[in-house]
Amino acid sequence: MNSSSEPQAFGAGRTGSAFDPIEFIKKPQVILRVVAWVFATIVFASIAQEGYVNGVCRYNESNACGYGVAIGVIAFLLTIGFTALDVYFPNISNIKTRRTAVLSELGASGALTFFWFIGFCYMTDQWRQEDQKDLPEWNGRNSVQAAIAFAFFSILVWAALTFFAFRRYREGVSNLFSSGYEDHSGTGGQTYGGYPSTGGVGSFSQPPFTATQQSQSSYQPPTY
User: Fold this and answer.
1) Distance in angstroms (rounded) separating the CA atoms of residues 145 and 123
2) What is the pLDDT of residues 67-86, one digit of tens each?
3) Coarse DSSP helix, strand, coil percentages of the chain, rounded to the nearest 5 percent
4) CA dist., res. 44 & res. 116, Å (int)
5) CA distances (Å), origin 119, targets 125, 161, 171
6) What is the rounded distance in angstroms from the CA atom of residue 182 to the CA atom of residue 171?
7) What is d(CA 99, CA 172) in angstroms, rounded to the nearest whole number?
8) Where's it found, cell-wise (predicted)?
9) Residue 224's CB: how many other CB atoms inside 10 A?
10) Residue 192 pLDDT grade (very low, low, confident, very high; cuts 50, 70, 90)
11) Backbone dihedral angles phi then psi of residue 206, each to the nearest 5 degrees
């Protein structure tokens, strides 16, 4: 969160606020995304390079290799996408759009936490059932075991990202009522001046047609 006194809305100030790259890099969620990106790359590369022998998955000839590669690619892309969104986030003026972006990250982070947990359990169980953990002229045992290890570490990282996304959403909703942040994206942020006087200067002391309405309300019908 920004430590300045500027009103905040879901982790960023008003639209057009100056972007500070140093402060951005120091954000816990940015650091965690970098770590998650590294872990996803290791899992994907380990399985893609050493997880198959003659087209057969080394995790007990199961679909664990495909699952690990798929979840690694998804996590890789999401970390890049949410980091780019975080850079652009201060330029989003609509409060509903900001809230949707934060909720999207919260949902995606929670889902990745679950999928990494499933992947870790799946790969661990299939590797446990693998009878031939060492094959002639194959040196990929450390790689497939590293994929399992970093799948476990990814659970922790994405769980932390889920926590920070939830805290960001909760503080964002709270700050909307306490910091005086105003949404200037729609007509609600516009103000209008008073009616011009007959001389073109100043403003009416009352809206138009009021005098006519008052004269009509004071009309008395004739008595016959």
Assistant:
1) 9
2) 999 999 999 999 999 999 98
3) 60, 5, 35
4) 13
5) 10, 18, 32
6) 16
7) 8
8) Membrane
9) 3
10) very low
11) -150, 160
Q: How far apart are CA 176 and CA 178, in angstroms?
A: 6
Q: Helix (H, G, I), strand (E, B), or coil: what is residue 105?
A: helix
What is the SS3 assignment for 48? helix
Helices (H), 9-94: 21-25, 28-50, 64-88
pTM flag (> 0.90): no
Residue type, position 64, single letter? A
- Entry field: residues in the chain: 224
Which residues are CB-contacts of 80 (< 8 A; sequence separation ≥ 6)? 37
From the CB of residue 167, how many other CB atoms can be counted at a distance below 10 Å? Answer: 15
Instruction: State the angle between helix axes of 141-178 and 95-129 in degrees (0 to 180), rounded to the nearest 10.
Output: 160
Give which of 122, 114, 129, 113 is closest to 148, Cα–Cα. Answer: 122
Q: Two tokens at 39? A: 């872990």
Dist CA 141 CA 122 (whole Å): 17
CA separation, residue 24 to residues 14, 35, 86 (Å): 16, 15, 9
> In whole angstroms, what is the distance from residue 163 CA to residue 38 CA?
20
